Amino acid sequence: xxxxxxxxxxxxxxxxxxxxxxxxxxxxxxxxxxxxxxxxxxxxxxxxxxxxxxxxxxxxxxxxxxxxxxxxxxxxxxxxxxxxxxxxxxxxxxxxxxxxxxxxxxxxxxxxxxxxxxxxxxxxxxxxxxxxxxxxxxxxxxxxxxxxxxxxxxxxxxxxxxxxxxxxxxxxxxxxxxxxxxxxxxxxxxxxxxxxxxxxxxxxxxxxxxxxxxxxxxxxxxxxxxxxxxxxxxxxxxxxxxxxxxxxxxxxxxxxxxxxxxxxxxxxxxxxxxxxxxxxxxxxxxxxxxxxxxxxxxxxxxxxxxxxxxxxxxxxxxxxxxxxxxxxxxxxxxxxxxxxxxxxxxxxxxxxxxxxxxxxxxxxxxxxxxxxxxxxxxxxxxxxxxxxxxxxxxxxxxxxxxxxxxxxxxxxxxxxxxxxxxxxxxxxxxxxxxxxxxxxxxxxxxxxxxxxxxxxxxxxxxxxxxxxxxxxxxxxxxxxxxxxxxxxxxxxxxxxxxxxxxxxxxxxxxxxxxxxxxxxxxxxxxxxxxxxxxxxxxxxxxxxxxxxxxxxxxxxxxxxxxxxxxxxxxxxxxxx
Length: 576
Ligand SMILES: Nc1ncnc2c1ncn2[C@@H]1O[C@H](COP(=O)(O)OP(=O)(O)OP(=O)(O)O)[C@@H](O)[C@H]1O
Fold this sequence. Notes:
Keywords: ATP-binding, Membrane, Nucleotide-binding, Transmembrane, Transmembrane helix. The chain has helices at 6-15, 19-48, 54-100, 103-109, 111-152, 154-201, 203-207, 210-264, 270-292, 294-313, 379-386, 406-413, 434-446, 467-481, 497-513, 564-574; strands spanning 335-344, 355-364, 368-373, 394-399, 402-403, 416-419, 455-456, 459-460, 485-489, 517-521, 533-538, 541-547. By secondary structure, it is an alpha/beta fold. It has 2 domains: 6-313, Up-down Bundle (ABC transporter transmembrane region fold), CATH 1.20.1560; 334-346 and 353-574, P-loop containing nucleotide triphosphate hydrolases (Rossmann fold, 3-Layer(aba) Sandwich). Helix 8 runs antiparallel to helix 9 (270-292). The longest helix has 55 residues, at 210-264. The radius of gyration is 35 Å and the shape is elongated. It binds adenosine-5'-triphosphate.
């Protein structure tokens, strides 16, 4: 979407399915607006009519009243339906966009910017959608009245139109500055969201640190809130002033019309003047309503732009991610491979981006591969490339020797179950058959969670657990999914020594016996002997790739040193 106003283009694409309703609403609005103008003409005529015209005037009056009601109710209903449908489509489409967005784009967008788009921006459009029917009808009434003015007298209409154009120009200028304010305020809203996250997620740390608490409260939150309020006040004041000037301008038009009438049209009937005054006074209401809605329209425009930008940024080549999961059963895989793969994070001009690769790595079915290396050496990035979450800048990802491309990438990803170090724990088990429930129960026992958690109607009874316990629950989820490749990113880091030992020496071996391929990111060098192969990363490159047989004697399998307590705990844990 590269049009000069991506917001309008995006909303246009959302409106397209409802074009019949939109058109119907506009036509009905036109009928309503024209009828109002007609009614004013009838009223004006009535002021000068003789007694013989009463019957015709009453009939016209009643007919026009009915048309006004039908027109305005019809256009209101259609605009309301379209407005609400657009909001619903917007919400669904944004959720779909996020579900399909390239993971690296999603990661760099950051949650504190994403959430306001989903809430604030959609709400801004929703607010406008609520007023949109009135906006539409007011617009149509103004147009209808202008047409009636033109019918009454061309010269006076031209003078009026010139003054209205002048007033509108002043409004356009005011609006442009107002919009700049709304844009600025919206940017500060992102900062505010970030600070809100800070006080919610950093509550414990802030409670313990008075200077930092004060800094966050005063320098970050209060300052940002005041900045937003100042910018909004300025923007709205400008529009309100423009509105008052608009009203004065309308009276100016009335005065000018009255003064100029004898000059411009000396032989014209008095009904022209009264008709003009009547219509101009009547127009004040709808014009006021149109101008009054400009701030809301301005905010909606800013919101649309934000939504369009997000939508543009999250565009993806993988468009079938939300298809029927029934076709995506996990299959087995003989090998997964990165061939000549490199990947660089996007970075600002000042920063040097981290570059991974080029990497050649082939993992075979049934292997236990440990990915090791210093912090920041690129282990998680490597895993994300291997999982098909990041698309390589160069090189190929292969499944059983066949390149994985956009069309096959999601099928490929279904081979894996992962527990990332920043994993998200889902409380519901999607597989609900008896066997899976039994496996879940068995592993709840084995991982010493049965006293805290049970499976009820396919949902874990609680996830209010300690950090280590939650990770065990994530492991159970992974186990139950039964996929052929399991990836653990520092799973054991939060476990007590006994469970760490159970994980490396027993659970990994169990999974291997089931024919699983296992990839483990680990810093636990005490248990490196449990791997069939160790891939060591340094600065984004593979530094060593050693199989069990190649490993030097010093690294050969030997039991890790453990305390008597470790051994006792491990014995207890392995009894289940
Ligand atoms: N979203 C991102 N944008 C930019 N750079 C990133 C991003 N994620 C990671 N990096 C950079 O990539 C490098 C490798 O990160 P990665 O998480 O792969 O390391 P790691 O080996 O898993 O580290 P650790 O052992 O600490 O988990 C780091 O220097 C990090 O700063």
